[in-house]
Amino acid sequence: MEGLSLPVITDPPDDHREVEAWLQTLGGPVWLMLEGEDDRCCRVVTTLLHGNEPSGTLALHRWLVERPRPRTRLVVLLANVRGALSHPAFTHRHTPDDRDLNRCFQPPFDGPAGELAWAIIQDLEAWAPECIIDLHNTSGNGPGFAVSTRRHPVIETLTGRLCEQLVVTDLRLGSLMELPLWRPRLADCPVFTLECGGALQPAARDVAEGLYRLLAECPDLTALPAASGLEVLVHPLRVELRPGASVAYDRSPCPDVDVTLWARIDEHNRGVTTPAATLGWLGPRGLSCLQARDGEGREHVGELLCVRQGRLHARRPLRLFMATTNSDIARSDCLFYAVPFA
């Protein structure tokens, strides 16, 4: 397709080629295009924006062995190939000399990650897609869920077939799913993030493969009947460390650490977290080392969390998402997201 910033390939991997060997042949970020029976319509999946979130790529590699023929054109972005292949493979969110690509989809587009994000934006507008789904893995183990910046019938129909929860967020981080908010040519395009589950969970690959099959086999997304049972949660709060605060993970409080989170806090990514559960332990600074701001910058940490005898608890029943046990992600990104549960 003329005018695209990134290369386009049309040949799926050989039946016996390992996924890492296949990625090595790509050489960098590429679009993989599958021509459909009706190429007047294009659907886009973006994956591997984070090099340590491989389920979308692993599922694609497995599915392409079947040589699928989609009902419409299906285009898949393999973005951070360099980060994914940094040794050991699929363990680096991004290379040490670069930024988080999924925080670069807003100006200024500085550095290699910013330049790549701008190239992706231009290409997405050139594809003029019917929908865009950005595939990710959760930072910790847990069930898959979807995230969007708005409610939309197509978003809710698709997510209801792939997961049980849709989180509608007003937080703005510079992620790809925010593009319809400020790119007029994408304003009417349904865009959402599908968090498939933990990177090491086999079920996460199944969720991603289910998305590819759904997009490939459905001739009309607007005609799909709504799935029952989708839970829609609105305005999650992002619980973060304040600048300079320290974090560790253990089964008891660590000395000289501001926040010690329970070693298996990712278990709280399922179900409802009650005030009885111990999430971790806080040092002398207490809650002052944490923050939880909404989309307008207002602080809510005291409404979500409390300290009892040095232990960190939910102040009220909460749904937790993306609770990680990776201290690097906790420091550079966030500890978890929380939504009050009525």
From TrEMBL:
Residues covered by the Succinylglutamate desuccinylase/Aspartoacylase catalytic domain: 49-139
Domain of life, source organism: Bacteria
Annotated transmembrane regions: none
Alphabetized UniProt keyword annotations: Hydrolase, Metal-binding, Zinc
One of the record's GO molecular function terms: metal ion binding
Pfam family, one: AstE_AspA_cat
Organism of this sequence: Halomonas urmiana
Keyword Hydrolase included in the entry's annotation: yes
Protein name, entry field: Succinylglutamate desuccinylase
Gene3D superfamilies to which the protein is assigned, alphabetical: Zn peptidases
The protein's required cofactors: Zn(2+)
